[in-house]
Amino acid sequence: MSDAPLSPSLKDLPKVAPDFKAELQEFNPDSMKKAETQEKNVLPSAEDVAQERTQQALIKGVEDFDTKKLKHTNTVEKICLPDKEVVEQERVHHNLLEGVKGFDKDSMKHTETNEKNPLPDPEAIELEKGQQKLIAGIENFDSKSLKPTETLEKNPLPTKEVIEAEKSA
To answer: Which residues of the chain have pLDDT under 70?
Structure first.
């Protein structure tokens, strides 16, 4: 450690002009205008910093990769030439394509197409829509919209004579 003092001595301090010194002593900070500070250099978010670190680590890993750790391998090239059967199949296929390309459309006869599966007529479609609406109405019926009613049973009990007549019969 050195023996130098932590603060400079009075003789080492710079000299200030007396009028300037008086002006500084009389300064009133309340006379200053209020100002809003605006940061023009916005710092990156924590996510941006983490993403940049990840990217730098990846680049450093690629740059520092030791190729001596790789194993040597021999490349074996396999050239498979087609046999006679494959060549013959390709030749036949090529001839078929040439036949299709060179086909004369004008030599064809005109035919009429008969529709085997016609669509249902409009009346059948409307009938089916009506049935679907009826089913939807039944399925979506709100029983809470019904009015409450009381049921009165009008089933008088049989008299003794009617009971006796039924027993004897």
So the answer is: 1-5
Residue 4 has what pLDDT? 57
Locate 75 and state its tokens: 């490349």
- Report the distance separating Cα 12 and Cα 28, nearest Å: 29
Dig out the tokens for 105 from the structure: 């459309």
What tokens were used for 81? Answer: 């030439």
Rg, Å, the chain Cα set:
53
- Residues ≥6 apart with Cβ < 8 Å to 52: 44
Residue keyed to tokens 């409450």: 148
Q: What is the DSSP letter of 157?
A: P
Q: How far is CA 125 from CA 16, 26, 119, 131, 132, in A?
A: 105, 100, 10, 10, 11
Q: What tokens appear for 65 in the block?
A: 């990769």
58's tokens = 């990846």
pLDDT tens for 49-62 read: 999 999 999 999 98
Q: 10 Å Cβ neighbour count for 124?
A: 10
**What's the CA gap between 46 and 12, in Å, rounded?**
46
**Positive or negative, the Cα torsion across 20, 24, 26, 30?**
positive
Q: How far apart are the first and last CA of the chain?
A: 137
Q: How far apart are CA 6 and CA 143, in angstroms?
A: 95
Helices and strands in the chain, H and E counts:
5, 0
AA letter at 18? P
